[in-house]
Amino acid sequence: RDASSVLTDPELAESVQVGLERVERLLHTVLQSDFEFVTEASLHLVEAGGKRIRPLFTLLAAHFGDAEHEDVVTAAVVVELIHLATLYHDDVMDEATMRRGAVSANARWDNAIAILTGDFLFAHASKLVAGLGTEAAEIIAVTFGELVTGQMRETVGPKPGQDPVEHYLKVIAEKTGSLIATAGRYGAMFSGADEKSIVALQRYGEVIGTAFQISDDIIDIASPAVESGKTPGTDLREGVKTLPMLYALEEEGPRGDRLRELLAAPITEDDLVTEALRLLRESEGMERARQTVYSYADQARDELAYLPSCPARSALEGLADYVVDRTK
Ligand code: FPP
Ligand code: MG
Ligand code: MG
After folding, report:
1. SS3 of 140, please?
2. Which is the closest atom of ligand 1 to the Cα of 96?
3. Of the four listed, 24, 114, 130, 165, which is most buried by Cβ atoms within 10 Å?
4. Which of 155, 171, 272, 162 lies closest to 217, judged by CA?
5. Arithmetic mean of pLDDT, 126-145
6. What does UniProt give as the signal peptide span (predicted)?
C-alpha cells in the first residue's frame, strides 16, 4: 500500500500530485552543483525512492489555507532535504548497508562521502529556507536541534534507573516527531491557515510521527528486506532497544530469559540476530507495540477535531490508518 492511497478525493489527489511533482523538480534543481559528484551522491537517496510522507503532509496541511501558495512547495522541499540529510548520517551511525531498497551511500562510497553529502543537503535546505523568511528559518533550526538531541539521546541510552520506555518515547518524539510536526506547521503556515489550525496540524504531526517511528521499529523486526528495503535487525546490531524489544524484555518465562540474554549487548553474529528476530517476532512485545501504534494513531486523529471536515482532513485520517498498516 502506497501513502498516496489516502487521496481518495479526485480533486485533492490531482492538486497533491501536482504539488508532489513540483517538489520532485525542486529537489533535483537545488542539488545541482558544478562538481558533478556532489550532485550524484546527493541524488542517490532522492532517486532511490522514499515515501515522501513529509512533503505529502505539508501539501495536505496547506489545504486548510490557500494550498496554491508557492512557498508551500519550497517548505515541503526544505523538510524533505533535512530528512534526507539525516538519513545519510543515520546510515553511517547505524552502519546500515541498505536504504529504500538501494545500497546506502556509506556502503556505496564510504562514511566520509555519506557525511559530507548529508551536510551538502543540509546546506541547501538552509539556503532554501532563507527565502522563506526568518520565522521559517528559526522553526527549522529549532527542529533540527531537537532531531539531533533525539539522536544523541538514543546513542547515549537511558540514564541508570530511568524508565526505558519513557526514554524511548522521548527519543522518537524528538528524532522523528519533531520534523513531521514542522512539515505540518509549515504547510498550514505558508498557506495562511489560522493559528489554531497551525497548532492542530503541528500536534497531529508530532503524534503521527511517533506512531510512524514505532511502526518503523516493528518493521525492523518483522519485515523482510524485500518488503522494507532495509536490512532487518539493524536495531539489534546497533544495540538500540526499540519499543517491541522493551516490551518483549518484560516477558516472563524462557523466551523472555533468552531475549534478556541476547539483548544485553549489541549483537554481531548473524545466527544470533536471526535467533533474536525469531524470538521477538513470536513475543507479545510485537502485539503490545502494535497496540501502542493504534493508540498514537487515535490520538493523532483526535488532534484533527478542530479542523473543518473536508477531503484534506479525511486524507489525514487515512494517513493515520496508513501508519498503522504499513510494512515498509
Ligand atoms: C532514523 O531512525 C533517524 C532519524 C529520524 C534521525 C537521525 C538524526 C540524525 C542523524 C542527526 C544528525 C543529522 C545531520 C544531518 C547533522 P532509524 O535509524 O530508527 O530509522 P531507519 O530505520 O530509517 O534507519
Ligand atoms: Mg537507521
Ligand atoms: Mg538510527
Report:
1. helix
2. 24
3. 114
4. 171
5. 98
6. none
DSSP secondary structure code for residue 67 in this structure: T
Q: Is the pLDDT of residue 327 over 80?
A: no
Give the global pTM.
0.96
**Nearest-angstrom CA–CA distance, 189 and 70:** 12
Give kind and range of the element (H or E) at residue 99: strand 98-99
Q: Which amino acid is at 76?
A: A
How far apart CA 179 and CA 201 sit, in angstroms, is 12
Q: C-alpha cell of 21? A: 511533482
CB atoms within 10 A of CB 172: 25
Ligand 2 centre to CA of 241 (Å) is 13
* 103: three-class secondary structure by DSSP: strand
The residue whose C-alpha atom lies closest to atom 22 belonging to ligand 1 is: 216
Return the pLDDT at 185: 98
Grid cell at residue 246: 522493551
Question: Quick one: pLDDT band at residue 139, thresholds 50, 70, 90?
Answer: very high
Q: Which segment of 58-62, 64-68, 75-79, 85-89 scores lowest on mean pLDDT?
A: 64-68
Q: Predicted ipTM? A: 0.93
The radius of gyration computed from the CA coordinates of the chain, to the nearest angstrom, equals 20
Residues 6 or more apart whose CB falls under 8 angstroms from that of 283 comprise 244, 247, 248, 251, 255, 256, 259
CA 36–ligand 1 middle distance (angstroms):
26
Which is nearest to 16 in space by CA: 51, 62, 47? 62
Residue 188 makes CB contacts below 8 A (sequence gap 6+) with 61, 62, 64, 65, 197, 198, 201, 202
Q: Which residues pair with 103 in a beta bridge?
A: 98
With a 6 Å cutoff on the Cβ, whether 178 touches ligand 1 is no
Separation between Cα atoms, residue 21 and residue 23, nearest integer Å: 5
State what percent of residues in the chain have pLDDT above 70: 100
Model confidence at 103, pLDDT cuts 50, 70, 90, reads very high
